[in-house]
Amino acid sequence: MREKFRCHPSIILENISGIFIFLILLTISSYDDIAVLLTEGGVIIIMSILVLLSFIIIYNILIWYKTYISIEENTIIIKRNTIVSNENTYGIKNISSINLDQNVFERMIGTYKVKIDTDSLSTANDTDIEIVFSKEKAYEFKKNILGLMNMEKSKSIDNENKGISCDAELDFMKDDDIEYDLVYSTKDIIKHCLYSLQVRLIIFYLVVFLFTTEVLKELEGISSIGLSVIPIGIGILQPLIGNLLKYHKFSIKRLEDRLYISYGMFKKRKYTVPVNRINAINIKQSTISRIFKRYSVDIVTIGVGDDVSEGSKILLSSNREDFIKNIKILLPEISLGDDIALQKESKKSLIIRFFNITIYMTILGIVLYFITRLNYKIPYVFILGLVIFLGGLLIFYMIYITRGIYLGEDKLIISFGVFTKKISIIKYKKIQYMNVHKTPISSKLNLCNGKIYILASLGNDMRAIGYYDEDLFEKLGKKIISN
Description:
Blueprint: E1 4-5, H1 10-29, H2 31-39, H3 43-66, E2 67-72, E3 75-81, E4 85-91, E5 95-102, H4 104-109, E6 111-118, E7 129-134, H5 135-154, H6 166-174, E8 182-183, H7 186-195, H8 199-216, H9 224-246, E9 251-255, E10 258-263, E11 268-274, E12 280-285, H10 287-292, E13 294-300, E14 313-319, H11 320-330, E15 343-344, H12 349-372, H13 378-402, E16 404-407, E17 411-417, E18 421-427, E19 431-437, H14 440-444, E20 447-454, E21 462-469, H15 470-482
Antiparallel strand pairs: 1-2, 2-3, 3-4, 5-6, 5-11, 6-7, 8-9, 9-10, 10-11, 12-13, 12-18, 13-14, 15-16, 16-17, 17-18, 19-20, 20-21
Helix pairs in contact: 1-3, 5-6, 7-9, 8-9, 12-13
Keywords: Membrane, Transmembrane, Transmembrane helix
Protein name: PH domain-containing protein
Transmembrane segments: 12-31, 43-65, 194-213, 225-245, 350-372, 378-401
């Protein structure tokens, strides 16, 4: 078909709302200054600002009016005929996912943001297409795209890409009597938020608490402890409340070869993830989770988790028994038997890390020497250097005990992290490339340090393997090539 259509006009308000909110807040905070400006002949400045705002509004209206979306055979075309003509063409066969988002404003007026992502390493960090439609038009648009995707996949000789139901997609979008495999209660989500707390965040706000208390000790008539609790309370509660709202009514279902994920209170998200598009699975344990043996799981795939506001969770925090049971329901393709034993990093890597920290401390010692010459008290400088040295040793030791690797028949398992532990499960065929290098010291110890790269958003595309014998990297290279 070649029908042309525009986004919902509400996209104009969404695009300019940030500017108006800023001006309103600025007006409220600087009301007296603006009043003085008006009385002193500042009308020209005010009028100039209003003209600029009018230009911005007219420009956004023009962009909306002159931008058309059309579906032509096996492509999506977005064409803009403004001052500069621009046309983007997206092949249906390259689409990795098509999902729906709703923020508070969109829920009020009944629109959806349709997000389309493509399989591309260069654009993996961003959602490629975002279109705002009314609810009915969003359903129709997604149904048409899914139908074309199915037609493209039916041409493929890869049978694992076949058999996706458009009706199941529409039921999921409309929540018509969907029976999810997993539905997390508010109690479960609160537990997840608590177990996911970062220890470094708690330590940071504890330092803020102690510092603020010391500063306020000399203030009379003010409860120093009460005031110092405010920053630490806000700092810790913010991620707790944020995640509680973000993962509200977190639900997930496995149907055929797709995962259906729905969650969110103010911003409602509905994601559909083809299993064959999942490039890695991350099992995550924060420091608190490691103590209480709790596990959460997120996935690496284009279209989910690319944006900082998005999540990529498929399992919230749970004990080992529930974790294994639920992962078998959602991803039975991933075998996590008790026979999997991660190979620890070579003990000789401790020599390399000790050498590294020695270099760092030498540089720090030179810096501290010049600091002492500025008449700082030597004992305090010495204590600071000792704390940094011991902290560095602790971090390097935690890296060592967290590292691990397993070379399976069709998948690679890597364990890494410092205080937070992550275990990545990656199919060999999903690895884009591998980088292996040596330093003069590691070469003497017959060790290599490696990294693998997968198709993912920037910052989540690399996995460091650590220091292992050269033979292990040769075996890994052969498995990547053979797959």
